[in-house]
Specification:
By secondary structure, the chain is mainly beta. Helix content is 0%, strand content 51%. Strands 3-2-1-4-5 form a 5-stranded antiparallel beta sheet, with no helix packed on it.
Length: 57
């Protein structure tokens, strides 16, 4: 299972726009806030592994 790293670019209601930081990509990933840690904010760093997001910074 691949580990991916993201930063929260923006939060829009029940969704967050994530930008991948460990691989070059201009695309943002739209993710439901219910799938993310409750205490995220814009600029938070996340690790995605084993179908779960973990707040790392």
């Amino acid at each position: 299972m691949e580990t991916m790293y993201y930063i929260v670019e923006t939060i829009d209601g029940d969704y967050a726009h994530l930008k991948r930081t460990d691989a070059p990509s201009d695309d943002l990933k739209l993710v439901a806030r219910a799938l993310l840690p409750a205490d995220i904010r814009e600029g938070s760093q996340l690790k995605y592994e084993m179908f779960q997001y973990e707040l790392i910074g």
